[in-house]
Design goal:
heterodimer; A: 299 residues; alpha+beta; 3-stranded mixed beta sheet; 8 helices; 9 strands; B: 82 residues; GMP Synthetase, Chain A, domain 3; 3 helices; 3 strands; globular
Chain lengths: 299, 82
């Protein structure tokens, strides 16, 4: 994914549009994005005739939000995101290491114990909300800013292992990082209990993973979570569905609007459609009612 | 005890989310033979974290609390007490 990628989103207010756009880009904080307001919302009469807010959101290169930390590798710009995945991590000579360390496999009991350990200093600077809104104007350097995506993956693994333990479920948690996306996979027959109707529990677990990474590292992360193979089965079903719709559009022309989906599902559809000649796809509407539209090329 | 899994799960998740895990407490109140309420208390500045923007985190915690309750055949509610 390139840093220059952007989405345009409309919503009843600038805030909702921004939130939807962030989600579509897989970001969790406005700090990570450049937001351009293309149109302020206007109020219509009795809700009729008003204009939505329209914003354009672009992913910032990850190196940017560092505020006053002069000694950290400057000029890495947009490349830092890519290089991070291949182990070429930004230097982190200042400050203590984070508690999560770099150790491999954390045992479940270990993770559980750790969760109860007091947080290290620096986590209470009240900067979380300030940081969100502040657009990178942080009050002080914070070495969590340069925590690599591998370490975020490790935190997710710890959290999920601890969660299984709290539930008393047998299962295995593995994570891997690919192109700055964290893939977390929870497997084991019993972990089916964490999927839920239409993946509702899985979505909630994912939401908590995001929240926890955001809190611990002040950075958003793009996380793909699968539990008991549910997401993969669902993605495959979605691909088949998307191909069928593409066939229909190719045969009959026009366009088809799918039911509203979350950003991860929309991406599956977009990726599937992108591989098919003669059709294209785009998203419309505002979260959580944002939908993919599959259309014939040129229409 | 009834609601044990709910207690453990909500406690674990809440502590992971806050800045001050020591201040978190989760108490189970039995509402009926198959119904429990998990009362979550946390340090004041952490309440916002546990609830999250537009209640997203609270909603996730509620869903997961119910998942935990399902393991015990219970209905679970979660109350965030300020």
């Amino acid at each position: 994914m390139t840093p220059g990628e952007f989405v345009e989103v409309r919503g009843p207010s600038v805030d909702t549009a921004v939130a939807a756009g962030l989600e579509e880009l897989g970001l969790t904080s406005a700090d990570e994005a450049e937001v351009e307001v293309l149109q302020e919302p206007t109020r219509g009469f009795l809700g009729i005739g008003g204009e939505d807010a329209v914003v354009r959101i672009r992913r910032k290169p990850k190196a940017e939000p560092r505020a006053s930390s002069g000694q950290r590798g400057r000029g890495s710009g947009g490349d830092s995101r890519r290089s991070r995945g291949s182990g070429d991590r930004p230097t982190r000579q200042s400050g203590p290491k984070t508690s999560s360390g770099r150790g491999s496999g954390v045992s479940q009991s270990d993770a559980g114990a750790r969760a109860r350990a007091p947080r290290r200093e620096g986590s209470r600077d009240g900067g979380r909300n300030g940081g969100r809104e502040g657009g990178g104007a942080r009050s002080r350097p914070d070495d969590r800013e340069v925590i690599g995506v591998e370490e975020q993956a490790e935190q997710i693994k710890e959290f999920l292992s601890g969660l299984l333990e709290a539930f008393g479920l047998e299962g295995t948690v593995s994570t891997r990082v690919e192109d700055d996306v964290i893939y977390a996979d929870v497997t084991g027959e019993q972990t089916e209990a964490l999927v839920g109707t239409k993946g509702a529990i899985l979505q909630s677990v994912l939401e908590l993973c995001r929240t926890i990474v955001q809190r611990k590292t002040q950075q958003g992360a793009r996380i793909r979570l699968d539990i008991a193979g549910y997401s993969e089965r669902r993605r495959e079903a979605l691909r088949i569905y998307a191909r069928r719709l593409a066939d229909k559009v190719l045969a009959e022309g026009g366009e088809i609007m799918l039911e509203p989906m979350n950003s991860a599902d929309r991406k599956v559809v977009h990726d599937t459609i992108a591989d098919i000649e003669g059709v294209r796809s785009f998203s419309e509407g505002e979260e959580p009612q944002r939908s993919v539209i599959v259309a014939a090329e040129g229409e | 005890m009834k609601g044990d899994i709910v207690q453990r799960v909500v406690d674990y998740v809440s502590r992971e989310i806050v800045e001050d895990p020591e201040a978190v407490s989760v108490t189970i109140v039995e509402e009926g033979p198959e119904e429990v309420t998990a009362e979550v208390r946390a340090a004041k500045p952490d309440m916002g974290r546990v609830i999250g923007r537009r209640g997203r985190v609270a909603k996730a915690i509620r869903t997961i609390a119910q998942a935990a309750a399902d393991e015990e055949g219970l209905q679970a509610r979660v109350e965030f007490i300020d």
